[in-house]
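Incident review: delayed structure delivery

Summary: a single-chain prediction request sat in the queue longer than the usual turnaround. Root cause was a stuck worker, restarted by the on-call engineer. No data loss occurred. The affected request and its eventual output are reproduced below so the record is complete for anyone auditing the incident later.

Affected input:
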Amino acid sequence: MPSTTQDNAPAPVRTDTESKAWAALHAHPESTTAEIAQHAEIGRSTAGKILAAWSKSGDITRIPGIKDGTRRLPDRFAPVTTPEPDTPTPATTPAEADAASAPDEPETNRTDATPSSCAHATAPTGDGEGSETPVASDKRLAKGELRGMVEDYLTAHPGAEFSPGQIAKALDRSAGAVNNALHKLADEGYAHQTQNSPKRFAASSEEP
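Output delivered after worker restart:
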């Protein structure tokens, strides 16, 4: 049985958030976590976890931040570039050389015929591929996923203040769970509570 090489390995399946971060990283290489989060329009803590995982797996390169006086600059991240192997040029056989030196066919012979395979290739499949499938609101979330969703919501509305109930309604989630996620984000510095009664939160404008 032939062994499976890395070239034949299937492409990794990424979530929508990971796809945004991946596109932002390739469009803006050597960016910080905060810059990637801003370009991808996702939360900084979410971007930090994604970049840390990719850096550990070797999918991207972490560039350590240098020290600027007493302050250490944040790390930067860049895609891993793999040079493509050189493709050897096949030797030309005598038969191929004769065919290359033969005169071209008249132009009318090439334009009159319309291969039926071309029309078949452009015909729509009708299988609905690429259409978005709505995610059920009762889907069980992974650990920390709701916190990332709440942070992404705040990041998408910079400067705006929301109550836990407003965010819960927008995300179709429990208000109690959203409230807990907001307090955790505030403790980590990714959000801050702007009002106590009623409770209101906003995205933090500074990197923790």
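Verification: The CA atoms of residues 137 and 173 lie 7 Å apart.
Action items: add queue-age alerting; document worker restart procedure.
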